[in-house]
Write a structure and sequence with these properties.
Elements: H1 2-23, E1 29-37, H2 40-52, E2 58-61, H3 74-82, E3 86-89, H4 102-118, E4 126-128, H5 136-144, E5 149-151, E6 174-175, H6 185-198, E7 201-206, E8 208-210, E9 218-220, H7 221-236, E10 240-243, H8 245-257
Parallel strand pairs: 1-2, 1-7, 1-10, 2-3, 4-5, 6-7, 8-9
Helix pairs in contact: 2-7, 4-5, 6-7
The structure holds zinc ion.
Zinc ion is lined by residues 36-37, 90, 94, 130.
């Protein structure tokens, strides 16, 4: 008798846990591609390649560099935004926030926000930490300024985002560039496949992308093209959604709060 009751309780507990796990898992993986710094290759290569495959992305721009040598211009940024890409805040001066006080960090993020608004870019709510380093003063400033997320750029801890543990102020990311564990399409593909298999949020970060790129913060545009072709194929098969960072954050928060 007692044994039966105990078994019944164990069964109910496992059912409860299964429901909990199920509610914390997304219906399918979301892939968020973002490009950092607003360098010239963003407009010349990243934008046309991703657009060719119908994949939206987020461009994190350093506002003090817009229009300077080697960087995109405001009209190019506006054009990308108008055609559906998300523009993100990557600070005004790209300072290393380590050891900086709250006011310095707040001003660096706010100065970028003011420049975006002055260009008519009133929907810039995503932030990427300069040098990919999370900082508690920066998180406080982001909240005070009404921004909605903070993206990292390193993968020491984890490479995937799951609703149950999702932190909108620290979006886990994979850096897609030379000399990393994900330095080519062939190396990145297993991570994409794992994201598909586990319905994960996968954030892929790009820096300079151009044909034949050889530097450490660079990627050959052919590798991006192969990746874009694969992602669009997965999307057409209904296995993933490729979205901007804000949409990816929205979906993960939605699944995180599901009862
Ligand atoms: Zn940067």
């Amino acid at each position: 008798m007692w044994k039966k009751i105990l078994l019944c309780l164990v069964f109910l507990a496992s059912l409860f846990l299964a429901i909990q796990v199920q509610s914390a898992q997304m219906d399918k993986s979301v892939v968020m591609i973002s490009s950092d710094d607003g360098d010239w290759t963003l407009y010349a290569h990243v934008y046309p390649i991703l657009r060719k495959y119908g994949l939206p992305f987020t461009a994190y721009v350093i506002t003090s560099r817009v229009g300077t040598a080697g960087y995109t211009t405001w009209p190019q940024i506006w054009e990308m935004h108008w055609n559906g890409e998300e523009i993100g805040n990557h600070s005004d001066k790209h300072l290393d926030y380590t050891g900086k006080n709250y006011t310095t960090i707040y001003n660096d993020i706010n100065n970028a926000k003011i420049k975006f608004v002055n260009q008519g870019l009133i929907n810039v709510t995503s932030f990427a930490y300069p040098f990919g380093v999370k900082n508690s003063n920066a998180v406080k400033a982001l909240k005070a300024l009404g921004l909605t997320s903070g993206r990292g750029a390193w993968d020491e801890n984890d490479q995937f985002n799951y609703p149950a543990t999702f932190d909108q102020w620290w979006i886990e990311s994979l850096s897609f560039r030379n000399f990393t564990k994900t330095g080519s399409f062939t190396q990145l593909k297993p991570y994409i496949d794992e994201a598909v298999a586990t319905n994960a949020g996968l954030s892929i970060v790009l820096h300079l992308v151009y044909p034949g790129a050889v530097g450490a913060y660079e990627l050959d545009s052919a590798e991006l093209e192969k990746t874009a072709a694969y992602l669009s194929q997965l999307e057409a098969a209904g296995l993933i959604e490729v979205v901007t960072v804000t949409r990816g954050v929205t979906k993960q928060l939605h699944y995180k709060i599901l009862p």
